[in-house]
Amino acid sequence: MTPFVVLKAQFAHLEKEIRVGIDTVLEHGRYIMGPEVAELEEQLADFSGSKHVVTCSSGTDALLMALMAAGIGEGDVVFTTPFTFIATAEVISLLGAIPVFVDIDPRTFNIDPAKLASAIQAVQQNDPSLSPLPKGFSAKKSIPKAVIPVDLFGLPAEYDAIHTVAAENNLFVLEDAAQGFGGTYKGKQAGSLGHAGAVSFFPAKPLGCYGDGGAIFTDDEQLAERLVSIRVHGKGTEKYDNVRIGLNGRLDTLQAAILLPKLRAFPEEITNRQRAADMYTERLASAGDSLILPFVPECLTSVWAQYSMLCENRDELQKGLKDAGVPSMIYYPKPLHLQSAYEQLGHRDGDFPVAEMCSRKIVSLPMHPYLEESVVEDITGKILEIV
Ligand SMILES: Cc1ncc(COP(=O)(O)O)c(C=O)c1O
Question: Domains (ranges, CATH) in the chain?
Fold first, then answer.
């Protein structure tokens, strides 16, 4: 019927420009940090309103590099949501910092700012009755340093409230805009909503390249300078002058050349995604209580990385859709606090009940900017029959 995301239809639309971009790189041969990388950074800065954009090798590295540049390390506490892709929390652990999970708002699926305040208190007072803490947590050795809100499914988190709590507690706010880039919060672009923002250009993301890629957005000049250094093995002023520990975190020139025409087409694609989401919402409204449709708070826009809803009888819905040839996905079947990788944190079922409930009921429908009305009609008709 329709694939879950359509990369081929987009390629057909932009083929000429993408091929010209790739050919230009093949001809000039500057595969590492070629001129397309700087051009892309400039255009991303224009699009987002951020003063500085540092492209990099993936969304995961964007998160990792931003935490490194903010000086996060051993024993520091970093708050985040358990209802996200593993990369969000993984980067905290990679630096020896401690992920402290905070439950989500069931309507937006994003971190709940009131629960963030409780989690900070729990850490400061070493009191897990205020909010679940990792096993063996010691307030004496651990200082709250940062929070990573995630713009899940393309909808920005509640940044005004998050910044208020963060400012009171001196926390660095790192926006995980891997899925959010293209969404807006009170007129500001996702990616520019924290002290730094991390974006992914993974192919299936709203703005994707043809491999791995990412970018960090910030208004902080010193942070941007550290990011540029971290991106190339902690370089100083000269290539073989290493002033800090960094990594090889560059975006390939070829990927930058692919992203340039895609970024030009992005505003129109965002409009088309919104149209597809509106069609789903209008047609599914009659499902009543059997489906909880996505909620977008006033003054926010989602880029609809996913169209995700809660369904009581999810298994039945997925089976019926599969029989009709309609793909559906579950993001995410297990919240992070219950993943084996985080067994050592000692969390239990019941620690973050909203995230757990969402993991049991969430289901995502095909979503891309080239989704036709007749296809949405077929999919929603099938859904209404099943539920
Ligand atoms: C919320 C979130 N954070 C981080 C990432 C990591 O991005 P990448 O796959 O580009 O490393 C992803 C990508 O899947 C994501 O969805």
Answer: 7-100+110-262 (3.40.640.10), 266-386 (3.90.1150.10)
